[in-house]
Amino acid sequence: MDSVSHLLGGFGEALSLVNLLWVLVGCLLGTAVGVMPGLGSSMAVALLLPVTFALDPTAAFIMFSGIYFGGLFGDSTMAILMNTPGQASAIASTFEGHTMARSGRAPQALATAAIGAFVGGMTASVLVVFLAPWLADFSASFGPAEFFALAVFAFFATSSILADSALKGLLALALGIGISVIGIDGVSGAPRFTAGSPLLFDGISLVTVTVGMLALAEVIYVACRERFDPDRAPMRSSGRPWLSRAELKEAGPAWARGTAIGLPFGVIPAGGSELPTFLAFGLERRLDARRKDPQFGRGAIRGLAAPEAAGNSTTGMAMGALLALGLPVSATAAIMLAAFQQYGLQPGPLLFDRSPDLVWTLLASFFLAMVVLLIINLPFAQLWAKLLLIPKPYLYAGITVFCGLGIYATSPSVSDLLILLVIGLIGFMMRLADYPLAPLIIGMVLGPLAESSVREAIQSADGSPLALFEGPIVWLIYALLLAAIVFTVATRLLDARSRRRQSSRTEG
């Protein structure tokens, strides 16, 4: 009951006219920055951090909450409409979301994303209010061995589940892990896979790989397709900015499952919401394969609903972990931690005692940001979908420019633009050869986590690799991985057998 009374007091402060204005401004700015390729919610918070120094801490962090959640929706908007996610957390939304947009259901896809973000974010906000003590115990139970097991699970799950060919999925995964280790080794200081070029000593950033693989490769692919298939029908929009009862019934279970998958990752330092969004997408794809009429690959609404809910539930819990534990589990949370320190505040359990008004007003603003985003984005779904009506030469030329500007803003170096071009060409060739991009991205995201976890676990055990297999959580993760592999192999064998029977009947 103390939490409820404190939260009501926070609402009393957050619902003032001035603070409501800051929530609205933050949501609009976050969405505006999020729709630019390469500039996601983390970049929005980083760019706008100096602007808020003139505000009092409460107003500044209320604005930050709007920027944070608004940036996530902006990332998803461009992922759905242009196949160009603002950052890695929106990658999983491109697979079915962009297919929905190409088939004329862009407003419905944006509505699905907005409602999924609302469901995931609101659920996480409620749990943050009541479960802060449990968050500390759960997060403390994960060590290097658990993180490595989690990374291995993600590697094999994405390469086998998200790819029609397990071999192609593993090759794409290996390429992603290979890209992630390029640069100077943080422990030994030795250069790795740099070919002696100083341009690669700092490695290749995830933003560059994401923008190059998904955005620039898409531009090159579309340009070639238009060159050799000029009569291809353009994308259209049906203009219905809401979901029908059948679509709500279809998306509802996926929102619930995605939210459940994303919640635990908000307190596990596993790199943010990339992993849960991929896991949620993979689960929905496996469930869809068991249906009589599989929809994945044709714009399955469940394939968009689950990642959106998972990503926002992870984000909401990550903010709670930052406030209650002082634990930044994502890049954006780390930037928020720096913002707290700029105001002389240290997130953690003592923050609730020393600055209760700030904490509970900020928690209340999470709820308000969810509502504001739903209100301003559902009606504007049809307006965002109008981007598809822009002539393709101008549209994709603009996307290319924003890709370059986004990369140059994160690292003002011409060499990064050259790397972006090379990555884009590799992504284009992978797309021509029908290689999946998701395993490559997940390898890039979790490769450093897996490497650092292996080193820490082995060093703590005096060089014994058995440390990677100790602990009940580790065994549980590997058991789930084994079950997933067995299930996938059995399902594909049954599918192959049924196809052979069907072909024999057709020939007979």
UniProtKB/TrEMBL annotation:
Domain DUF112 stretches: 20-442
Superkingdom in the source lineage: Bacteria
Transmembrane residue ranges: 20-39, 46-70, 109-135, 147-163, 170-191, 203-224, 321-340, 360-381, 393-411, 473-494
Entry keywords, A to Z: Membrane, Transmembrane, Transmembrane helix
InterPro entries: DUF112_TM
Any Pfam family matching the protein: TctA
Keyword Isomerase: no
Protein known as: Tripartite tricarboxylate transporter TctA
Organism: Brachybacterium endophyticum
